[in-house]
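Practice record 12: protein with beta-D-glucopyranose.
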Amino acid sequence: MNKRYSIISDWEIAESSYLPEENLYFESIFTLGNGYMAARGTPDEGFGGDSIPGFYVAGVFDHYEDGLFELVSQPSLFSCRIFIDGNELSLRAGIVRNYSRSLNMKAGTLTRSFEWEFSGLKTFVEMVRFISLDNVHLAAAKYKLKPLNYHGKIEIVSYLDKTVGNLDWGKKGTFELSPARHYHFDIIDEGFSGSGEFYLNTRTKTSGLETAQAVSAFLYPENEIIPDFKRIKNGSEIGNALSFTARKGREYCFEKKAAVFTSRDPGINCPREAARQLLTSLNGKSFDELLKNQVDAWSKKWAISDIRIAGNPDDQVAVRFNIFHLIQADAENDPLVSIGGRLPGSEVFNGGVFWDTDVFVLPFFIYTNPTAAKNLLLYRYNTLAKAREKAEKHWLKGAMYPWTAVYDGREQCAFWEYANIEVHLNADIAYSVRHYYEISGDEKFLANEGLEILIETARFWESRFFYDKEADCYSLILVQGPDEYTGPVNNDTYTLIMAKLNLRAAIETIELCQNRHPAAWRMLKTKLAFDEKEIKAWDKIIRNAYSDYYDPKTKIYIQDEVFLKRIPIDPFSIKVPDKMLRFTMPSYDTLLRYQIVKQPSIILLMYLLADNFSLQEKLANWNYYEPKTIHDSSLSYNTHSIMASELGFKEKAYDYFLRTAYLDLNKSRDTDLGLHSACIGGTWQAIINGFAGMRLRNGRLDFSPSVPETWQSFSFQISYRGKIFKFDIGKEMIKLRSLNCESEAEISVYGHPVHLVKDKEHVCKCRS
Ligand code: BGC
C-alpha cells in the first residue's frame, strides 16, 4: 500500500508534495479540534470543489427535514483570500513548489508552507493554525508571506462566510457526497469592533441556537508598515482586508485570533459579548504566546495518554495519530455533548452518536481521563428524557436509547432495523456505566446518575423480553445484534447475554446503594416510582431467559436462533474489493440467507465479558466465527486484534492491529468525509487490552503482555481508582511503577498480585 502521508518525526505527519486529488483525505486526517469546536484541515484560502470547508461547534444542531437534525456547518474562522499583485492565491492556479501541509500532534498545530509562482511572481507562504486546548473558545492562525523576486502589493482578506451550508451526505445509506446544501442559520448581528476586529452572530433556524464568532486580524507591528485597512460587509461575508506594498526578500507576518461562544455555553447570556471580551482580553498576546499555552495543554494530555513504541517509528506515529484524534474530540467539561460516530469534524451520520462511543471510545477516557469519561456517560444520563420518550413510543417501559443520537438525544436513524431493534445499545450503555465505576471508583456517580440509567434500561429489558409459554422461557424476539449482516433475529446471543448483565447490574447496584447510599437511593426510588417487585421480575428473567445458544460439544455460542440454518459460505469468495457486501449483493435479503458476519458479535461478547468464558470456548468461537467475518464495519478489526492477542495468535493480533490503527491513515474506508471514531478508540484497546492484555479481574487490573514482533517495547500509563500506573513492556521484562501513591495489589501480572511502592520500579519477567 502506497502511503499518502509522510512521517516527519515521531509527532508529525505531512502531505509532503502537493496532491490535489487527495485534498479531502488530508482535510480529514488533519482535522483540528478541542471538543468544543472542530475544523477540517481545509486550506485557509479555500480549495474549490474537492473540499469540505468543515467547521463545527459541538452541540449546535439544527433540523433539516422530516424530523432529522444535523450538526451545523458553520463559517470557518480560518477563511481568507490572499492577493499577490492582484492575483488571488490559489493552489489550483500557477506553480506550487516545496509544498507541505503537516500536522504536529505534540502541539496540536497544522502548518502549510509552499512557494507559489504566478505570472512570474514568486511568494513564500506559511500558514500555521491551532484550535486551543487551553481555552476551548479560542483559535489562532499566523501567516508568513515573503515576496521572493518582486516588490508588489499584497492583500490579505480575512472573513467569515455567511453562506456555508451542510452537504447532503448520503442519507440514502451510501457514503457519497452530493453538493446539495442545507442552510441552517440566520444572521442576527454582525459588525466591527476594535481596530482589526469583526464579528458574526448567527442563530439556527429551528433549534434557535446562537453562535458568535469574533475575529481579530492584523499585521505584526514588527513589520513596520501601516497597511491600508478596509472593512468588508456584504451579503455573503463579513471581514476585513489589509493591503501593503511588500518588498522583495522581506518576510511579513500576519495574525488572526478568533473566539467562539454559543448560547449553549453555561453562564453565557450574550455569546457575541463573550466572544468580543475574550479577544479584548488577549490584546497584546501574540500567536506565539498563545501557542505556548497550547503546547503546555497538549503536553499535560500526552503525559497520561501517550503510548510510546520503541522499534517501530511508523506504528508510533500511527498510534499517536489515533490518540491525538481521541483527545481532541472530547468536550471534557460538557455533559450535554458526546462524540459522534465520525468524530466532531464530520457531517457523516449528521454528527450522530452510536454505541461506538460507549464501547469503543469510552474506555480510552475511562483509563486516561475519568472526568471526560464521566461526561460522556452524563450525556447518556442527560438524554434519558428522549430515551424514555422513545420507549413509550414503542409501547415499552423505561429508557430505549436512540441508535443514532443527535442534539438532545433524539433518535436520528431512519432505518427501522437499526433504530428499533438493534437494542443491544441499551445494555452496552449499562455495561459502560459499570465499567466506568469499577475503574474510577466513582460511587457518587454510580449511586445517582449511573443507577438511574441502570434502572431505566433494566425496565426497558423487562418490557422487551417476551415470556414464551411453550418454551417456558423469556425470549427476545426480533432484535438485531452487532452483526448487522444477520438482520432481525430471535434471541441474538450478544443482546441476550448483555441484557441479562444489564438486569443484574441494576439489581446489584440497587443493593449497593441501599447499603452505602441510603439517602440517594430513597430519593431515586421516589423519583422513579420504583417498586421492589421490579427486582423480582428482573431476577426471574435472568434465571429463565432463553439459553439454548450453547453447544457443549463444540463449545460454540450460536449467534442467534437461525444462524445455523443459513447457508455456509466463504464470504471472501464473493467480496468485491473496497465495497461493502451489503451494496454488492443482489439484495439485502440475499445477504441474510448466508452465514456472513459483518463484525464480531460473539467474539466481542467474549472480550467484553472476559471472565464468563473459558479459553477453550474463546478459541472454539474464534475458529468458528473469524473465517465467517467479512469486516465490513470499521468496528471489526480492533476486537479481532484483542481476541487474537488473548489466544496467543501474535501475527494475527498484529495484522488486525494494523488494520485498525491505519484504517483512516491509509484511507481504507471513506476517510475523505471524516474519521472513524470506533476504530480510532479501538486502536487504543488493541494495544492496552490486546498487546498488554489488560482485563479487570476480581477487582484487580490484570496484565498478560506480549510485545509485537516488530516492536522492541512499549510503554503507557493507566489511571485506576485515582492511582496512576506506568508500564514499560519489553520482550523480556515488564517494568511497573506507581506514580502517585502506594499500591496495594490493584495490579496483577499474569494473575499474580504486584505490590508497588510509590515511584519505585517493580520488574517482572515476560512469559513469552
Ligand atoms: C456498524 C455499527 C456502527 C455504525 C456507526 C455500522 O456500519 O455496523 O456497528 O455503530 O456503523 O459506526
